[in-house]
Amino acid sequence: MGVPKPRSWIPSWCCWDIDNPPALTMRLNILYACAAGFTSANLYYSYPILHILAKDFNTSQAGVASIPALAQAGDATGLLLILPLADFLPRRTFTITLLALSMAFWIGLCVTTDLTVFLVLTYLSALFTGTTQIMLPLVAELSHPEKRAFNISIVSAGPTLAILLARILSGIVANYTSWRNVYWLALGLQSSVLFVLWLFMPDYPAINPTSVKKILKTYPKILWTILAMYWKHAVLVQAALLSYCTFFCVSSFWTTLTFLLSEAPYRYSTTIIGLFGLVGAATMILGPLYSTFIVKPLGQPLFSVIVGKCVSLIGIVVGTFAGRHHVAGPIVQALLLDAGLMIVQISNRMAIHPCEPRGGNRINTAFVSVLYLGQLSGTKAGNLMYEKHGGWLASGGLSIGVIGFSYVIALLRGPHETGWIGWSGGWRLKPRVTEPGEDPEAASGKNVSEVKDG
User: Fold this and answer.
1) Quick one: 21-217 is in which CATH superfamily?
2) Which residues does UniProt assign to the signal peptide (predicted)?
């Protein structure tokens, strides 16, 4: 790591001291969880108020339907093209700059009266909403191996809770005041995050210090190293596919649940259907407990992934076969499916972290890109199965099949296997971890070459 030079605009207590580097305290971890949460929430404020936006912009529902899609597209674009640069730039400056750019475009959303401008600004604001995907690799890097799962679970819980609160808050504020107050409130929350990060986030040195000029010169090579990771790290591919299957099932469930609960025998209002999100969030914010009592005791991430898959499978089976007869079915499915998702995510992030100690943001991009595909395909396939191939039972049956397929992926490659298929090394629980100061190559076995000067 390069040692950052002191800058006058950084508080003295945030400057990097190579002889006494700042520890990842619980307060910092919670700060990073809040930063990740409030920035992720920006992608979801529009969901409950699309009908209000359509009326205000004097257009149809179809005319505003692209707003959340553009937000997700902007976030995905930023993940692929911008966030990998966090491996080469100081994280504090990079994070605060992205947040400031996102806020600048967000101000336009608060005041514009033109739908086309609103759509463009939605994409541009989301393009720089990448704090979550910076914080997760950063916390994994800074954590001691014994506390890594616990710390990751805290940061992961931040976006989960914030996304839920964003939808609830947006609906309530827009119901009693103007929808623009939702966006002004969001701007205020972002400003608070920006200020607190400026006040307390240490000036962590760049992992691979590189000048902006050299970054621009080697930018295509930086992107290429992300693709290279897929065939250099079998554990990354396995973890990404396992998470793909879980996100597929979660997205399919939450999409088709709206159809189930709005039809006979339930016929619930949109308000009651929306409150079902509280059920899933209640289990997902318990991530620190999962990491303490499941992920850490099992040692090897693959084994806790299998446990998480079992939890999800039980929930899907109960919800699929009981959901059409009693509301307890979907409630149990929401609880267990989201709990399983959290266990799987914490475990898989533990598995991929040692692969690229000097490329955490790039490997995170490679990992999360596959998760996005799981969300998209789960939503599409769930809708298709529900509408044209048998309703709730068909969509649930598909999810059961996907979970079954994920067991095949898990069992094809053991936790100590260095190749693509096999169980060399056996079933032992003791993990291989990267200790502070340990040679990354020795811990991970292989490493994608970092971008060189030239």
Assistant:
1) MFS general substrate transporter like domains (1.20.1250.20)
2) none
pLDDT digit string, tens, across residues 429-451: 665 544 444 444 344 434 433 44
All structural domains of the chain with their residue ranges: 21-217, 231-426
Distance CA 343, CA 181 (A): 36
Instruction: Extract the tokens encoding 437.
Output: 């100061």
- For residue range 393-418, what is the model confidence (pLDDT) as tens digits? 999 999 999 999 999 999 999 888 88
> Average pLDDT for residues 45-70, to the nearest whole number?
84
CATH of domain 231-426: 1.20.1250.20
Domains 21-217 and 231-426 share a fold: yes
